[in-house]
Amino acid sequence: MKELALKYGCNPNQKPSRIFMENGELPIEVLNGRPGYINFLDALNSWQLVKELKQATGLASAASFKHVSPAGAAVGLPLSDTLRKVYFVDDIKEELSPIASAYARARGADRMSSYGDFVALSDTCDAVTANLLKREVSDGVIAPDYTPEALEILRAKRKGTYNVLKIDPSYQPEPVERKQVFGITFEQGRNEIRLDDPVLFENIPTQCKEFPKEALRDLIIALITLKYTQSNSVCYVKDGQAIGIGAGQQSRIHCTRLAGNKADIWWLRQHPKVMSLPFVPGIRRADRDNTIDVYISEDHDDVLREGTWQLFFTEKPEVLTMEEKKAWIAQNTKVSLGSDAFFPFGDNIERAHKSGVEYIAQAGGSVRDDHVIATCDKYGIAMAFTGVRLFHH
Question: 0.85 cut: is pTM over it?
Answer without folding.
Answer: yes
